[in-house]
Amino acid sequence: MDADVTESAGTPPDPDHSAADKDDDTSRGESQDGPDGKASRVRWRDEAVPARRRRHWVRWAALAASFLVLVAAGVGWRLYRKLDSNIRTDTSVSAELRAYEKERPPSVVHEAQNILLIGSDSRAGDNRKYGRSYGGSQRSDTTILLHLPADRKSVTAMSLPRDLMAEIPSCRASDGKRTNKQFAQFNWAFEFGGTACTIRTVERMTGIRIDHYMVVDFNGFKDMVDAVDGVEVCLKEPIDDPDAHLKLRAGRQKLDGEEALGYVRARKSLGNGSDTDRMDRQQRFLGALVNKVQSNGVLLNPTRLYPVLDAATKSLTTDPGLDSLKDLYALVRGVRDVPTDKVQFLTVPRQPYAADPNRDELVQPDAAKLFKQLRQDAPVTVVPADELARRKNGNGHASESTSPTPTPTYSGNNAAADLCKQ
């Protein structure tokens, strides 16, 4: 009777199978009965072997992922170091300002920041093609006081005309000699004593403490425009300006970096040929550039942000407080959520200088009121010139409300404005 009992659980063995086959079947997971007729050990082929394989691939996947993380970290660190090394630091400016600390205005609202942006018109190196050199010197082609309020809910950029007549203090020149204190056009301060002299001139004029500065050259501006794939403008008339290296058709069009540089620098072929008209154009274009960066999601997209950062950092010379990518990121992070309609551009109230209509002078008390608002971190209201004209009352002052002390309003634009609708 026992001889008729099969080796498997109820299934006769294949008579053609050898003992070796049985051993192989056992190793592959065939069931083996105990004396009680129940399976005492089962190793299924479709569970045990794939489990070992899965563990094998999980280990390799973990190793591969770790390798990729290390590679990414290495690439990220290399790119970070590259961007960080792009930024140039001018420690001589800080040293010069420390020598005049007692005469500098104090910070009124410590959480707010005032940054002076200086566009250098140096003709050295790659900039030589944009015009003649001033005997080897340079002047500030564009100067903007950037005010970041303590709450970081807005940004105000105030342009200072290059031809504005100003009190320029005695400054240390590049050869170590000191210049005489004089009343001259504002951009001479940069020629006389560089950034430190410009900062001291602005602080004397406005009473606003400058916390940081950035000097930007021509090529950096071009590369930033190219990095965002151009900026769109609208022209009522075609432009042909050899001095600005600019030839454009009329109508809506997208400017690349080279064309954008010519557009913001042109004087003779656009508007009335004044520096005032050029500043308004620069402000509108900078607003459009800010809008392009935000609308395209550049700040939140590393692959698109890197070219912009590379172009920007290559063009910058800063103080030690902003000379690292970490410092610049902290600055950008604080304002990246500011709506474009709260990024405002205006020019200090000015009018033709009485002694020379080719120069400008401050309009008082309007300029003093604006400086006080920025100094005390008070809100600044900016509207387009045509709207401001409609608000003017009989006394020639903008009427914002019927309250006894209405908020002063200034002519300007914001980054949300469409260049093709102005």
Strand order of the largest sheet: 3-14-9-4-5-6-15-19-18
Element string (H = helix, E = strand): HEEHEHEEEEEHEHEEEEHHHEHEEEHEHE
Distance between the termini: 107 Å
What portion of the residues fall into strands of 2 or more residues? 15-25%
The total beta strand count reads 19
- DSSP summary: helix tally: 11
- Proportion in helices: 25-40%
Net shape:
globular
The whole-number mean of residue pLDDT values reads 78
SS-derived structural category: alpha+beta
Task: Report the sheet with the most strands, covering strand number, pairing sense and barrel closure.
Answer: 9 strands, mixed
Radius of gyration: 35 Å
Q: Which regions contain 5 or more consecutive residues with pLDDT less than 50? A: 1-12, 14-32, 130-136, 398-405
Structure, described:
By secondary structure, the protein is of the alpha+beta class. The radius of gyration is 35 Å and the shape is globular. The model is unreliable at 1-12, 14-32, 130-136 and 398-405 (pLDDT under 50). It is built from 11 helices and 19 strands. Helix 2 packs parallel to helix 8 (302-314), helix 5 packs across helix 6 (257-265) and helix 6 runs antiparallel to helix 7 (275-295). Helix content is 38%, strand content 20%. The longest helix has 42 residues, at 45-86. A 9-stranded mixed β-sheet has the order 3-14-9-4-5-6-15-19-18, sandwiched between helices. The protein has helices at residues 19-28, 45-86, 91-99, 188-206, 218-227, 257-265, 275-295, 302-314, 325-335, 366-375, 385-391, and strands at 32-33, 39-41, 88-89, 113-120, 140-148, 155-159, 165-168, 182-185, 212-216, 231-235, 239-241, 246-248, 251-255, 316-318, 343-347, 350-353, 356-362, 381-383, 409-414.
